[in-house]
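> run fold ATP-binding protein
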Amino acid sequence: MTWKNISTLTDLQARTETGTWLGTSRHTDADSIRRHFSVPAYDESVFDYPRVVPGCLKHARDNSAHSAAGGTDFMAIGPPGAGKSTHALEWSTRLLEVNNRPGMSEAVVWRGSTSRSEWVPLAPWATVCLPASCDVEARLESTDSAGSRSVALEDVVREVRYYEDPRDLFENHVQPGKFHVVYPDPQMTGCQEVYEDCPYEYELEFSDGDPVQHWWTAAVLARVHSGPYHFFVSFIIDEIGDVIPQEASKDAYSSYEKILLFRDTYADARKFGVSVFGYGHSDVDFHEKVKRKVRWRITMNGTANPTRASQVVGVGNVPMNTDLTSHLKTGKCVMWTEQRFCYPLAWGDIPKPTDEELRIRLVPRVPKDPADADAASREDDRDARSSSDDSGAGDGPAQASLDDVEAATDGGSVVADRADRSSTTSEGAGIDATGGGGSS
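> ok
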């Protein structure tokens, strides 16, 4: 479980030898990650009650798995330091390991955040998807004397892709067998069109003035109601209270109405092969309208599990009658449904390569304030005139067109090579889940 000869994140080597990357059936990304972190292969036989962990993890197009056909979900609750991010990394790998098999395929989408980068242990296998409407700045921040420095994101991860809108993301960039880190588009490009084509009707609008977390409602909606449907998709949403906060109100951004839209989409997700796995610090952080739709739950170490149905919104029965989790060590939890529970469920350590934090800043090309756009235009005019005066030419500087897109196939995927960007083709992975967990 160690990283050798890695002093900074740009020392990481992209894992391009896997079958997932090369388009062959052997040595998948999930296998590569498991070997790197010494994570054993998934063993369903260790679980006494298959409808708990195996029922949530293993997906199928029919009822051949341990739960109904289609996607699944859970909400995991635990205090800071309980190991939520590590659990999410391991669960991501298990999803890729278990659900990419003959007749079945699945992709994992991790919610990227400009303030956090807990996914970095999987950077050598990761496909990072960024909005084409923004310029991207990546920095490595360290607590030692190295300080902060700018880096090319392509030097840290295996692949970087740029999507136009939520539909383009899933149609052309998210691919089965891969681990994707997706950063939301603050411009909300294409989100309103996704909503207008869906069967739900609320008085709401997506615009570039929206809080950026609203983009995730449109993204899940796009996959559920626009596809593609030939492979499943699992969303890993850390800090899910940011996306569906309990305090959402009927404000100028229709925040409450978008909670209702997320709820309706969440309820339909299973039928379309979509799973949503959320993590948060407290059960009160995310909205009760969505809680009522959750089928699996996880209580992490360091917090007491419920013992009565009245303690949990949307639950008719709690199978635990005593506190099992308050005194558990880091890296253990109880996973439960209304009928059964798995205790203790454990996962291993997935360490970061270095102590650095990867910060990604997205800068919209089109300012939200028209006055800013006018000022930028005037500045460009002055620069053009200055350049013309200096060179003696009257044409001004040439500009590369962002519409200059060359489509190229690589393993059945489409990659957009833009005039001002460097796009590569690659795949991502995850790691392995459940280092233990018999049921009680």
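The chain has a mean pLDDT of 85.
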